[in-house]
Amino acid sequence: MREPAISSTAEDYLKVVLNLEDREETPSTSNVARHLEVTDSSVTDMLRKLKKAGLLEYAPYHGASLTEKGRAVALKILRRHRLVELFLCQVMGYRWDQVHQEAEDLEHVVSDRFVERVDALLNYPDKDPHGEVIPDAQGFREPEDDLCLASAELGAYIIRRVASSNPELLAYLEKEGLLPARILSLMERAPFDGPLKLLLTETDTVCHIGLDVAKHIFVFPMKKRADARRRPAKKAASSSRRKARS
Ligand SMILES: [Zn+2]
Which fold has domain 8-66? Predict the structure, then answer.
């Protein structure tokens, strides 16, 4: 059952706080306001309400942090959002740059039954169309162990995820072939925060992207990936941990 006391606005606030905590940014009033494009004073009001409901810790000037209950709600919304995005892509033929806004609306209105049916229909996926991890039904998610392309050293990488909901940026990345699971070599880094030169392995093409674009791309070193494959025992350990935690 969904908790009827939580409005879709409140759900959006919890999701933003979770997102900021994930990025190790302080969920201050002004930071939350900026992400939701609302005024500081309306954020203060809502944060007080969420604190009263036991969903957040909140002190003026210190910002907010999720309580265990608040985190569970935020992860549930995130699960809905990402499953809906994948459903729109895989079943309904949306492009990856078209799904975010649709999912922003649907995540608040679909039932738990609908979400679990989608999960089963898609064969219990663990990643959304942007490569982001989908929390499981218990709210557990594997921690991200990727790194940002903007600060990566030269070498070969696989793209794990693209952390952006900007349709123009996503369409641009698709055009350049910079999609999750694609392999690239970071060949050169221009000085003074200049562009990165990439070689895309599948198509053997070179492209240059600005640092502002690279900040949204998260990658995993191919070398580490090969090392992990030589040690299959570790993978078994992580899947049993997943069961244990859920
Ligand atoms: Zn989205």
Answer: Arc Repressor Mutant, subunit A (1.10.10)
